[in-house]
Amino acid sequence: GINAEYGVVLPEWKEFLYPDAQLPLQISLSVEGVMKAQEAQQKDKLDAWSLDKDLKVSKHSTTLKQLTNGVKITKTGNKCSRCDKTDNLWMNLTDGTVLCGRRNWDGSGGNNHAVEYYNETRFPLAVKLGTITAGGADVFSYDEDDMVIDSRLQEHLLHFGIAMEEWEKWDKTMDELQLDHNLSFDWNRIQENDQSLEAMCGPGFTGLQNLGNSCYMASVLQTLFSLPVFQQRYTQLHQLVSQFDFSRDPTSDLLIQLTKLGYGLQSGIYSETPEKNGIAPSMFKTLIGKGHPEFSTMRQQDSLEFYQHFLTQLERAETLRPRNEKYDTSSFLKMAIEERVECGSSHQVSYKVRTDNVLSLPIPESAAVNKDELAQFISRKAILEEKGEKISEVVRPHVPFRKCLEGFFQTETISDFFSSAINQQTHAFKTTRMRTFPPYLLFQMRRFVISANWALQKLDAFIVDVPDELDLEEYRGKGIQPGEKELPNGEGAKKQRADESIVQQLMEMTFPRVRCQKAALATNNSGAEAAAEWLFSHLDDPDIDEPISEESDAVDESKIDQSALGQLLAMGLPEKKVKKALLATNNDLERATDWVFSHLEDPDEDETPAHKPSQLVIPDLPDGVPKYRLKALISHMGKSTSSGHYVCHIKNGAEWVLFNDNKVAVSKNPPTDLAYLYLYQRVDS
């Protein structure tokens, strides 16, 4: 029960107009404080967004030629010189012409007159009039196609009679417009905008308010709380009371915050009507992102990365406070993956088992079912671009889901493999299979790939024929087979080196050498693209920058901080991994904790000898039949995972439900062909 020294008072709810002279002074002061805090929070959001932009000084700043034409601009009475627009006005810094900005995709904004003027004159820089203050203004470079810094802005504005210190801001900056766009995405413009959707509310249909680029988190949490294991463990009021520990700060207790959030989502008390639907998970977001270089910011993030980060934090929290359950919650989304490598020269094999909580599927464009249409489109596009024209209608590859699945499980050739059987470099063949089948299985479509210039770009493709039901029996791993001979596990097995050509290609992306070496080794030198993908997904590993050790598995006890060792062992963590973690992180307690949790499933050399695959330790994870039904989709709109917007669609009985921040509605046409993440539920779960 609740400690008798504490109590919770819930006063009767009353509403007052504000300001109200009858309100006590203390309440009025409190209201003023809250209002100011909200304004400060908005400023923090804007600052976070602005800092992320990393504007560059325009190459035209010092060479811009300005015409002496007598044009003088005043603070009032300005309008577009080609239409009647009086907002979103941009002044060309070469000749002082005032024109309206671009037209948005929804018809709002300007009439494109400023960009049209640039195409006619090639005058490169323009300033947004309504943003001019003593501190600066928005400047856009049409030539560089980006917002820029004009290092001589004050001089350029004075040329047209504009004294910056005398002007006040009267229009929204581009950062403010983008922030507004991210905070208030229009419901019908994001998904199923051609449908009239029936809004939903009540238990299980509570939305999550967008806190500013928090849709990546909302889509993941809504999806996870649709699963029975989360509903059973983290949605009941009595669970919140049982989780409460008066010796701990509840604002820093993940299990309390998760239960509070789950209760809010599933109880329905925060979604009694469609108009009043939604929870603002501010405290949860602050806690789950604490100390993380990305999730602690207001920037948009990759929903898959958040999914994995959240499950890691949940696993840690449940380890520190074990419940009377056989499996921790994150285990229900984990699987054991079997990797088989066959030496191409000796045909001897090695097996190892690792755990993962996602299957990342390639999208093989070569398997598109509309190849003829694609070829015609590419040809037509090339002809138009040669004429300086742009094609208006884009044709995307239509790739079957089954081909993506086959691409993940197909045999992969390793071109630079050190074989312990022949004690030299050769080639090898690697195959991947599943040793366990989790209750909930997440697939990621690799929609973000490495381009020719080593930048992440989105692969726009339709995933067609997505199955409602999936049978994965053909991809079951069975361990070493009769007649197979195992690769020796001698000293030679440790001599594999990172392919220097792969390392150099990655270093051209400005990554440190040790990271590039680890990426090449982790992917068995199978190629720069595979190594780059591994690197991007492991940037937050606590030991990513630690030197590569070629020593044995022995631990130098004299270098271990005994106090830190005791604290970690008190958490119930395995002693050998704790010692290795402390050595790898120079006895940094927090980093060592992260290291242990990210290496829990790694086998210790003396515990699981690689030369005895029959003795491979298969992790104790929930397992069952390899048959699944589609449960949820998480879709992304935008050019990269660091921008745009996320929504999720969840199967509820026979119908699909769309969760778009705090908007919840029956879905008429779920985007199975455009999803980024697909969650399947095992039929016996």
Structure description:
By secondary structure, this protein is α+β, with helices and mostly antiparallel strands. Helix content is 30%, strand content 17%. It has 19 helices and 22 strands. Strands 9, 13, 17, 18, 19, 20, 21 and 22 form an 8-stranded mixed sheet that branches. Strands 1-6-5-4-2-3 form a 6-stranded mixed sheet, with helices on one face. It has a 4-stranded antiparallel sheet with strand order 8-7-12-11, with no helix packed on it. The chain is globular. The protein starts with 24 loop residues before the first helix and ends with a strand.
What would you say about this model in short?
This protein is α+β, with helices and mostly antiparallel strands and about 675 residues long. It has 19 helices and 22 strands.
Task: Compile the SSE list and pairings.
Elements (H helix, E strand, L loop, with lengths): L24 H29 L2 E2 L31 E4 L5 E3 L12 H9 L3 E4 L10 E3 L4 E4 L3 H6 L15 H10 L3 H4 L24 H10 L3 H7 L2 H7 L10 H14 L14 H8 L13 H18 L14 E9 L5 E8 L2 E3 L9 H16 L11 E3 H9 L2 E8 L4 E11 L5 E6 L2 E3 L5 E3 L3 E3 L4 E3 L28 H8 L5 H10 L5 H10 L24 H8 L5 H10 L4 H10 L28 E11 L7 E8 L2 E6 L2 E5 L7 E8 L3
Helix pairs in contact: 6-11, 7-9, 8-9, 9-10, 14-15, 15-16, 17-18, 18-19
Question: Can you give keywords for this protein?
Answer:
685 residues, alpha+beta, 8-stranded mixed sheet, 6-stranded mixed sheet, 17% strand, disordered N terminus
